[in-house]
Design a protein that fits this description.
GO biological process, one term: DNA-templated transcription
Largest sheet: 2 strands, antiparallel
Number of helices: 28
Structural class: mainly alpha
Protein name: Zn(2)-C6 fungal-type domain-containing protein
Order of helices and strands: HHHHHHHHHEEHHHHHHHHHHHHHHHHHHH
Distance between the termini: 85 Å
Organism: Exophiala aquamarina CBS 119918
Strand content: under 5%
Number of domains: 3
Main location: nucleus
Helix content: 40-55%
Keywords: Coiled coil, DNA-binding, Metal-binding, Nucleus, Transcription, Transcription regulation
Number of strands: 2
Mean pLDDT: 76
Length: about 625
Amino acid sequence: MSETSSSGQFDSQKSAPAPTSAPSATLGTLPRHTVNHRACKECRQQKLRCDLVNAEDAESSNCSRCRKLGLDCRIEETFKRTRKRKRSRDYEQEIEQLKQQLSVQTASPPLLWSTSAPAAAAASLTGPIEGISQEERSGADVPLFKAMTLSTTVPEGVSPGAPDPSIIPGVTTVPLDTSLVSRRLTATLNTGRVVLGHIELSAQDVNELFDLYFLTYHPYLPFLDSATTPQQYLEASPPLFWMIISIAARRLSTNPTLLTGLARSVPDLVWKALQGLPHTLGLIQCLILSCTWPFPVSSTTIDPSYMHVGIMMQAAMQMGLHRPANPEDFTKYHLKLSNGQIAERRRTWIACNIVARLVSMGVGLPTPSPLTNPSLMSLSNLDAMQDHQLDFVLRCTERLHVPDLSSSRDRPTLYAILEHEISQLEANMDAASKYQVLYLLSTKLNLQTWFLFDEPAVPGYAHRIGMLYSTACAMVQHIQPFQEGQFPNDLPSSLPFFCYQSFVCAAFVLLKILKNAYFASILDAASGTKLLNCAIMSLRRISVTNNDLPGRLSDVLAYLWTYPERTLVSGQDIRGLKLKVQSRMSMSIVYDSLWRWREQFQRDQASGVTIEQNNGKNCSISMSLPRILY
């Protein structure tokens, strides 16, 4: 625009009359460029000259600058300029909110409560679990669990919008908008039904399943708070909520298909939660349970428990659970934790160590992260019975982490030291607790199976094999479904998976020793045979679904026990207990026996010999077993 036109514009604006009530036709006498001179909102925001009225195309609604930059060229009469910094902050907040919404939707599947359920059902969900008083459920430490999924929220005074200064942040610096999760769940919590995939449960079903879990399964590893309501578990961690439901549904006679449906949906839910960072305390507790009572599988090659153990330990240390009283060392914010919050973190870390060692022992592999802070279980911290139970189990599992004894020259000395430590544990054990007895027997068996690596010429070899045989007998007697003069034993139906693996080890120890002609002649073979049959029956009782590992291994034991040739499993003399597989630590005897069985089974298949022709007794073994077992 020329200087003349610019000055003309100024003069025309200066001489323009004030608005009056005159007819609009008088505006036609004004200069054309004065009336139509406009600026779009983008140019007005940047205080730039807009050529919208001078565009070459009269029909065009965009100025040259907006066309070049691809901006939305609009004229707004009510437009007001905004500060650039303020607008940038608004954009950043909007981006963070969108990221948080995406992470919540990724980590959590659609959890909906049906609006058709009666209000009475909703009241039963939010009410106390049967057998636990309302006072216990309304304790001061219960709100801790509600904050577990909010572990990335920064305290009030550090970042705006934080709802609770006691919430424990994770290692990330990005705050999580907890109101998104809260609004999403609270809006549907009062209708009484919960849905995951094709699984739909009423409030009464949820309460019954939680009662069953805390009554039957919780005593094995008492690290969760039984005073927390199912609703609080769901709000805090959907994966943990559904994992508890899955464990309780393992032997649910009223709905036997529930476990099958959950086995399809819950693992996907856990994997999606693992993909979302940062991880939460509830997710760590979910992994602990999934490793303790995993979903039934037909082969250890598809069992993710050992992999879950590694993820669990790494995520727990990243959150600072191994230093439960010092979470500030792993965040950028000042925190004030209550005694209940510290105790919750401490119990979770102890459970991580217990499960990591027991799962590693069960598969015959090294523990991913054998870390324990001795101050975790000081006497001043043992303020509850469940802490004493965890303390005993932790001290038992510490003895599982023994050095590799397969090639040690100082093996007798190490045996003596470890036996002394186990004797001290036995002296401090509550003999009335079937759970403590179970863990102690597992620890003793883990140590004594190393006796099979000894050379038969070493003094005391036969005595040590006798000790191993006695411990294996005690293990089978403790877990057998029906004990003389007592009520039916409920241990086989609720046994943790790593305790089942110790039981399998005990059964194969009995098999190998009883098949050896030398030791069968000096031991009570009749009682041993009876116990081995009890072990086979117990494995079938431990089996949760058709064709899972316990059921298949019971058939393997029956096959090896009834096979006419003793040399298939063991030899004739004292040297016949030597193992071919020696790289799976204390579980080497299990893998050694399975390799012998697999090779013989394949030879029988190749030669056309049937099981009935071999022994005429056991005809229930599937011919497809060698393909997928172990």
